[in-house]
Amino acid sequence: MLKFQNKTILVTGSGTGIGQAITKKFVENGASAIILGRRKEPLEETAKMLEEIIKEKQSNATIKIFDGVDVSNEKAVTGMFDALKSENVNLDVVVNNAGVSGPVTCFAHAPMDEFRSTVGIHLTGTFWTSVQALKVMKEGAKIITISTFFAEERPLEQRPYRFRSPYTASQGAKNRLVEAMSWELTEKGIISIGTNPGPVHSDRIYKTVYPKAASEFLRVSGFEDLTPVEVETANKEILGLLGEDDETVKAGIKSAAQKLGKEETTLTNLLDKVKSIAEKFKKHINNDSRSAIFISRTGCHNGSNTCR
């Protein structure tokens, strides 16, 4: 039984990660999907996968792509929903999923432009997407907003992500927005739902967030004879080498050493230390995600790793 047959969903940031997984699950259950994001290639790959599912399930679902839509861009979001309205599309579910990691740095070092960008995508993007979605939603429709368990309130309070103040702050504000919408949209018969899942297994977390947090830790605490500025500069050159083969790493270290005027051994040691600390972050989060308290907070069961 396809329980979402003849239903239409829209998921922001649906080309990869959680957004893609959510869309896939809906389509497997018969829903038509509108997918959007900033990058065209991942959306096209996702659409291809979804079309295969539709064919396999023999449903009457359809897939529509809006590529190049950044939810922080007011005109792009407005234009998308105006186009849907002109096509007489009715949305049954809107999922506010689009997000970014934001700057991974200590509070006093956070750049203003990246703070604005993080808030623009997480908070402003969720606000404006939800406002515009009302043009094509009827009574009984739902707006689902994805946040994070790091912004969970008491009694299940979590400490914010260290070195990720812009991300945590914008996600916390997004939770309050969900509550405001739930009150104001009641009269329209539209339901606002928020969910605060925990860490998810993804390349973005393992290859970007954890290494950046590790490099920031070393910038603040110091490493060998490098100054904080030198640690920061060096990490910008070498972080991209994580996960590469030995020859690529060796060549990258040599190039960075020549560019920065540092010993290759020093940069190799720095990269190894970043990797070691990042692995500790990963292990700590994974251990938390297996605990009963963590699982109760995220609403996950049976050790599921489908959380954020």
Task: Describe the structure in your own words.
The protein is α/β, with parallel strands linked by helices and 308 residues long. The chain folds into two domains: 8-200, Rossmann fold; 204-289. Helices cover 53% and strands 12% of the residues. The chain has helices spanning 17-28, 40-57, 74-86, 112-133, 165-184, 203-221, 228-238, 246-260, 264-289, 292-298; strands spanning 8-12, 32-37, 63-67, 91-96, 137-146, 191-195. The protein has a six-stranded parallel sheet, sandwiched between helices. It is elongated, with a radius of gyration of 21 Å. The protein starts with 7 loop residues before the first strand and ends in a 10-residue tail after the last helix. The model is unreliable at 289-308 (pLDDT under 50).
Question: What is the count of β-strands?
Answer: 6
Uncertain regions: pLDDT < 50 for 5+ in a row?
Answer: 289-308
Task: Return the CATH topology of the largest domain.
Answer: Rossmann fold
Number of helices: 10
**What's the main sheet like?**
6 strands, parallel
Given helix and strand content, the structural type is alpha/beta
Query: What helical percentage do the residues reach?
Result: 40-55%
Strand content: 5-15%
Rg over CA atoms: 21 Å
Mean pLDDT: 84
N- to C-terminal distance:
28 Å
H/E element string? EHEHEHEHEHEHHHHH
Q: What's the CATH C level of the largest domain?
A: Alpha Beta
CATH homologous superfamily descriptor of the largest domain: NAD(P)-binding Rossmann-like Domain
